[in-house]
Amino acid sequence: MNYSKQREIILNTLKENVVHPTAEYLYDVLKKSNSTISLATLYRNLNQLAENGIIKKIDGLESSSHYDHNTHEHYHFICDKCKKVYDISADVAPDLVKKAQEETGFTINGSDIVFHGICKDCNK
Amino acid sequence: MNYSKQREIILNTLKENVVHPTAEYLYDVLKKSNSTISLATLYRNLNQLAENGIIKKIDGLESSSHYDHNTHEHYHFICDKCKKVYDISADVAPDLVKKAQEETGFTINGSDIVFHGICKDCNK
DNA sequence: CTAAACTTGATAACAATTCTCATTTTATTT
DNA sequence: AAATAAAATGAGAATTGTTATCAAGTTTAG
What we know:
Two copies of one chain form a homodimer.
Chain A: H1 5-16, H2 23-32, H3 39-51, E1 56-58, E2 66-68, E3 74-79, E4 85-89, H4 96-104, E5 107-118, H5 120-123
Parallel strand pairs in A: 3-5
Antiparallel strand pairs in A: 1-2, 3-4
Helix pairs in contact in A: 1-3, 2-3
Chain A binds a DNA duplex through residues 1-7, 22-24, 36-41, 43-45, 47, 63-65.
């Protein structure tokens, strides 16, 4: 992977975002800050960054993928009403990957763990 | 939900499938058994069945959704090489949903828990 | 038996993502 | 720093999975 200005901007924009944005959301943010990054370049770089373990692609949330700059093991919750994505500590299931590996005998390289329901705000 | 012949066929076909098929896979199976079920009807019914809790739609595996006739709590593993989908017992993380609920205070209605890596067969 | 509600098939439409390809940037070798 | 190879880019076309539309057929309750 060579250095590229665009990739740097994309990564920084993702890092500045507390939420877990979709490509489309990032694209809008980038456009507003006058970056002339094309949608293809955005997708290409998000995929590359994820393949290199620098960011994490979160699937299973909605029809579109979300991206997370936090690669430490943790899970996600999406509110079915407001669609906000929250982090859940990996402490709720200690050694989850290890145990799954023991049970199956498979080599586990990653996991996508997503809960959905209604968040506190929407429950009011 | 009214009775419908098509829905019955779709549900039975899904039940007979030990794998966790995609809509496309099911469509092929149905065509081979001379069912004249249109793709739209298939998708419509899979969604309805899932909404009514009769089957489960599994997201986060691949670009397309998979469907599971087993609605008891359990997790999934997809082999990145052969793309086969395996079940993982919920025992690897007892009370996962309950704990996540306690930690967050959110109402959790469901979860998609997917591990990926290389299965035993492909590891040989 | 009739009317209202539901379901269907065929196909168009859609949204998210990837591909193509000519041009530009970055890295490497001299 | 010039030449060359390798990687990245932008723009838009293409692809994939899924949903919407709508006229016609089916199911169900009264």
